[in-house]
Amino acid sequence: MDYFEVRDLHVAIEGKEILRGASLSVKQGEVHAIMGPNGSGKSTLAFVMLGHPKYAVTKGEVLLRGKNVLEMKPEERAKAGMFLSFQYPFEISGLKFSKFLFEAYKARFPQEKTNVIQFQKLLNEKISQLQMNEEFAKRELNVGFSGGEKKRSEILQMLVLKPELAILDETDSGLDIDSLKLVSSAVNHMRSPNFSAIVITHYNRILKHLQPDIVHVMVDGRIVESGSRELAEKIEEKGYAKLYNVAEAKS
Fold first, then answer.
1. CATH superfamily of 4-90+163-250
2. Pick the residue with more confidence: 100 or 88?
3. What is the pLDDT of residues 130-185, one digit of tens each?
4. Which of 124, 158, 171, 216 is the most exposed place for a label (fewest CB within 10 A)?
5. Where are the beta strands (DSSP E) in the chain?
6. pTM for the complete prediction?
7. Residue 94: how many CB atoms within 10 A of its CB?
8. Which of 14, 13, 21 lies closest to 221, judged by CA?
9. Cα separation, 114 vs 221, whole angstroms
10. How far is CA 169 from the centre of its chain?
């Protein structure tokens, strides 16, 4: 049995079908990439995996270690080790970043009984790893953050919460080359038999740093091709329209 599976997933929003039988499987320790043109359903897939309420699953399963997570609440999925890095992270005024992350850490690892001092040490270590200032954690969650700071905030959460399965939804968008390398380095640092990731991206540049095990192409709500990282290079060279007749798929 694969560690994580999406089986024949059909999803609609306000009566419009977005996913039309998406399927993929991830083994423990693997990093997968999902590429595809705008509107192909990549972000929808990410949101459904973590339980966004506005999407209606009409058919299919999402299995984590053989258990259908569609039957779990979003917070239960997070506690089970799933993590989503948002393409557009939310801002929450009045909530200090470190407080938010401490509460999330306690919920994720209730058995550890970590106190504030112990957590602050852990947090500072991860902040240093991302070459950020410790003052960063004292700010309100994502309020006034630049685009790059918001993306580093997401990766910092991932490093602290140590998910077993991370879904990164266009974390690379808007990043300069130095931030891109740091983000990629953080993901690579976590690679182990106990960590798997699904990276959603438009660009081959982050994949050059991540070296994913498998690249998938999503068109019109389905995975239409899977292969090695050379598949991303082929897409970069020829484009989606030429390879997959995207215009016809969207009609």
1. P-loop containing nucleotide triphosphate hydrolases (3.40.50.300)
2. 100
3. 888 888 889 998 888 888 888 888 999 999 999 999 999 988 887 888 888 888 88
4. 124
5. 4-13, 16-26, 31-35, 56-64, 67-68, 82-85, 92-96, 140-141, 165-169, 196-200, 214-219, 222-227
6. 0.91
7. 7
8. 21
9. 42
10. 5
